């Protein structure tokens, strides 16, 4: 009996453009791509989750999306495949361990670490809504009406020390958080589109990390905006794991 198929989005690799650099294979943490005979190739349709983390890593523009009948994404098969595959020396950029800190940062005294002081009101929270997890926020939440949404990847508030002051300051800003790697991306695309349609969101500011899997968050928003067909400003800020701003881009989507 053949594998189950469905109509879905999946990557296409143009071998004429591919130079075999392997960056796409490194970026794909499902192991769906391998460099074989000097060219990147799709190992199995069932390993490809359709998020396209590999696309942004290809310097030759050899990878695109197409929607066609393909084997369904099989998470269990991916786990078995990855468990049986010799890990790359570099590992997945999203899971590679790193010790963070500036070279000129002096070590803190042990007492300051083991017995910290929390002076009341020293840095007030700018959070204006609860819950923040996108899956839990109801579509009819009153704070969504005409809001400026800050949609943060789950890791970004931990990497950026001044997250509240930098991204949540300003009238009408609310925080939502999601993980494009661990959560249901299709569910989020639909839910964000419904939010845009029902609540008249004025803007969405995506805060993502530099790791490839985080690129899915911006694509989820782009797809949701396209589905809702509403005029809305989308801003994408990319942070490094060291807490620096790597890029900041704003796009205004217009629909006739």
Briefly say what this structure is:
Helix content is 23%, strand content 24%. The protein contains seven helices and nine strands; from the N terminus they run βαβββααβααβαβαββ. Strands 6-5-7-8-9 form a five-stranded mixed beta sheet. The chain has a two-stranded antiparallel sheet with strand order 1-4.
Task: Report what the structure shows.
With 256 residues, the protein is of the alpha/beta class. It folds into 2 domains: 5-83, Alpha-Beta Plaits (2-Layer Sandwich); 127-253, 3-Layer(aba) Sandwich (Rossmann fold). Helices cover 23% and strands 24% of the residues. It is built from 7 helices and 9 strands; from the N terminus they run βαβββααβααβαβαββ. The chain has helices spanning 23-27, 75-83, 110-114, 156-159, 163-168, 185-199, 215-228, and strands at residues 5-13, 33-36, 39-42, 63-71, 148-153, 173-178, 203-209, 232-239, 245-253. The strands form 3 sheets. The protein has a 5-stranded mixed β-sheet. The longest helix is centred in the last third of the chain and has 15 residues, at 185-199. The model is unreliable at 87-97 (pLDDT under 50).
